[in-house]
Each structure stands twice: as structure tokens, then as C-alpha cells.
Amino acid sequence: MIQNTTTSIMGCWDVYCACCGGPFDHMVRIAAGRGRKRKRPRQRQSESGRGGNAPGLIVAPGSGGASTSEPDPGETVGIGDGTMRGQEEEGGDDKCGYSNEDGEDYEEENDGDGVKDDDLAGYYDRDIVDEDDVAWTRDVYVIGSPADGDDEPIGPAFISGPCGYDLYGGVHLREEAGEDFNFDLYNQCYDVGTDAMHVYPFHKPCLDILAWVLTGAPDRHRLGLGGTLDRLYGALFAHPHISCALALDYGGPQHDQFWTCARGQGEVFVADPLPSLPPKSQKVPKALRDFLALQMPTGSSGNGSGDGTDPFARLPLELLRAVAELLSPRQLAALATASRAVHRALRRDRGFWRAYVRRRMPWFRELHELLGEDGGDDAVDGHTEEERGEKKSLAGLVYWADRETRAWNTDGGTMGHPRPLIGVANRRRIWGVCEQFADSYFARVGASGV
């Protein structure tokens, strides 16, 4: 499990998304991938609390938004919005130890020659995620509510954003957010024992995933319908938490004073879970289709025991399907390996796999679409199996998709190299967190009789 550790710097701290437990933009740092030339800021004497043993963080100047200049493909960068509150506007280091180099003084080195792994330990690998992949972490959105004299929420709850983080537990509205009369400048993320308005920070895609779990559609605007937002804030307010996150199992990261970018392991936590625009939105459907296209046509025989000794060969198809639906993809793959009858019955049963992924993988909408959940036909890439003259194993596709979207894989327990479905792996992880919170939310809904 990743341990997020860093030199303790008194005063300020990071806060994390209530949904995914992940970082916001100023915490995300990306270095060049292994074996690629990168520009590295010349090492300065240690002036910040974070020390001088790692390449400096390069941030864009100004506070109005992300940098408009394109970074060098090998440059070590941060995607923060530049100067943050509590940070000096020109030169020097901010009060929390984030380097504020001007980016002009570089020396070139190659990851494979002369740069130690320890030097890059606090930077994500660009070969796994780049600036486009992590841009979704830039903005903070908060859910807040007015409170009475006893600090109890009285509503109506609201969502404000985009915001920027102030480094000391509070947020401020970005210029592009415009005016928001609900928003209180005196606010604190989570509860740190002040009389400020308590707000809960989220990434925008995480709000969409939370809405997906609670309402059935990935649309954060649905959270504002029918009193949902008031009940949601009440559940957030009542849920146990610390000063930087809710007390939920976030599936990996530990929440210390500052976020540490765990190179080669933690990239999954900052991979975009809901890309909405091409070309990013096209990567997952393409990866699924490519997997199908590269499969060898399946034969008529399977693995495991022959029909004479296979107890599953005696089961009616409907009963066999009912048994299979109770199993996880990993368990079902093991059963199909052991039983030739299961292998032959299910490998190309599109109706079964449509229902199976809808129930077992509700977060994988790209796979739903590929299996024809919305289209309702047997076509893949516009051609039926008969037209292609092939019989592809849909079972193999689902097993592969399940394996690739587990945040912690069996190959060393990490996401240590590029994976085509890394963003979906993060979505799956976030979905699991939202399901934990949904239990307390729906208990509150039931208690209110709504």
C-alpha cells in the first residue's frame, strides 16, 4: 500500500477529494518517462521544507488558470494554477515548500544515464500519465450549506466551483466561476474546529460518478433534484472524517499532511476517470476493439474435463447462466478453465455477457456499449461474427477488462507500467468508494421517508 510521506511543514496542509481521496492540481507533479531526455531545473540549495533532493516543481506564473504554454515533452512540471494564496508571487518558495522556479535555468539529463530513481520518487511517470491525463484534478468543487448557531446544517445545500485551494483548509472561487451568493469566503474543507462554513471538496468528474451511483446517471446536476443535495450534505456532515478526508476506504492512498506522487505506483489515482472529449474519450473503446481484433478465433473445444465427467454439462443452459451470474469475473474465468461445458456455453453468449457486465461492472459504460447494451444488435465494429468469419470470445474480453481495471494488479500489486484502461481502473476504484458512502446516504433517505 502506498504511504504518502513527506517532510513535515507546519501550518498548511493538503486536503483531498471526498469521493476519490485523491489530490488536487498543485499536488500533482510529473517527470519524464524512463529512457527519455528531460529538462531538469538546476539543483538549488535546500530552501524549502521539502528539501532539495528532487527536481524542482515548475508551475505556471499567475493565479488565473493553468499555463497556456506547452511543456517540453521531457520537462518536469506541475499542473497547478501557479501562485496560490499563501505563496509569494515572484521567485522563492511558497510557505508550504512548493518550489516556484521561473523555469529558465535547466540542465539536460537522461533518465537512463546519471539520474537516480530516488531523484524521481516524488514525481509521476510521464510514460504512464501526462498533463492531459491529470488536467481533471485542476478545479475544486465544493458542497456546502448554511448552518445554525449549533453548527448544524439548515440548508439549502449548494455546489460551488470551480474553486482553488488556499493551502490552509479553505477554498476560493476562481474568476471563471462568476458570482455565487451561496458561497462563503470564510470556509473550511471538512471540520477543523472552526466556526467557518464546512464544505466538502470534490473533483468535477467525481461528482458525476457520485451522482451515477446515487441517481443512476453520471450527471452531477441530478444531485440538485428533489432534495438530493440536502440529504447528501447531511450525510457528508454526519460521516466520520479527519481534517483532510472522509473516513472511507479509498483503495490505496494514505492521507498525510501532504500528498506524495508515488512514481510507478500511484498514477492510477490521477488518471482521468471520465474523459469526455476526443481523443481521450476514444482511447478506451479503441482498446476494447483492438483486444477483440487481436484475439485468435475460438475453436469448438474448451479446457478442463470432458463432458462425460463434467457436472456442469448436465445443467440446463438457464441454470448454468444463473450460476455464472453469481461469480466474479475472476471466479468465472477459473470455472471456465476447469469446465469445458461452461467455456463452450458462455464464451460467445452475447446476451449473457450484456446482462453480466451491466450487473457486475456497472461503471464500465464503454464495455456496455461495445456489447450492444444500447444498440441491441450483435455487431462489433459494424460487422457481425458471421460477416467477419470469426468467432471471438466475449468471455476473454470481459476477463481482460476486469483484470486491467483492478487498481492493484497481480503483477507486483501496482500499476507500474502504462495500461490502456488505467482511467477506467480509477473510475472503478472511485465507484467503490461512492458505494461505501451510498450506504449511509440511503439510510438517511430511508429515515427521512423520502
From TrEMBL:
Superkingdom of origin: Eukaryota
Record-annotated F-box domain positions: 309-356
Stretches for region Disordered: 32-118
Alphabetized PROSITE patterns for the sequence: FBOX
Biased composition, class Basic residues, residue ranges: 34-43
Signal sequence annotation: none
UniProt feature, compositional bias: Acidic residues: 101-112
Protein name listed in UniProt: F-box domain-containing protein
Annotated source species: Diatrype stigma
Lineage: Eukaryota, Fungi, Dikarya, Ascomycota, Pezizomycotina
